[in-house]
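#onboarding

Welcome to the new folks! Below is a worked example of what a typical request in this channel looks like: someone posts a single protein sequence, and someone else replies with the predicted structure as tokens. Don't worry about understanding the tokens yet, we'll cover that in week two.

Example request:
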Amino acid sequence: MRFSVFGEYTAAIPPPHIPAPERPLRSKLSKLWPWAVLLCLTLSWDASGADLRVMGWLGDTQGFALRDHGWLASVMHDGGKRVAMLMYACVLTMLFWPVGIWRRVAQIQRLEVVVGITVSLLAVSALKRWSLTSCPWELQAFGGVASYVSHWTWGVSDGGSGHCFPGGHASSAFAFLALSLPWLTSLDPGDRGRGQKLLAAVVLAGLALGAAQTLRGAHYPSHTAWTAWICATVAWANHWVFAWWAKSNTRLAS
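Example response:
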């Protein structure tokens, strides 16, 4: 794959040094409709108050029956975290010592992937650090000590330990949205197909990890949705920054 002149990636453009045609701003913005739809759906979910209804179906004043479920706690949480760490290590290794299909990926693209994943993880972690929102299993309604306070009410403590918004565990998967963009934005149909498969795998993994934490009482569904949106935002912004960088420094794309 090679960089085009306007944030797109190309693979096998003959001859290889002829850049792809520049795409208009409207074409670029049109690709953001999934991001906009996700934002609207997540805001609508927040406004509906569905978080508490869902958690009410899963728990009671005795807590959440599935909180310590072996599969959810050991496999989906602990195991999922270890898999994410292994994948991150593999991607980081490919930056310096590419093998297989990674040999076809320009170093600046490999750097983009690593930076996108890293910044996504840091963004979610930073928001969690600042947030005073506690996890559902800390609410009085579920046997805890905290009172429900919307995660939009910044600076107001709910009486619990806080630092639960957005969903950190789901970010273990959603951060890898950045991995799919170099392929998704390629002008080569084969590369776009690989990108779509990567995107589907990341989204499914993120939803599965988020759902596991919701079933355990650790996170509201909206926490997972906001994590997905944050990671998608970081991934796209990171992609455009690297596209601009490559356009400004064409020698890096060779």
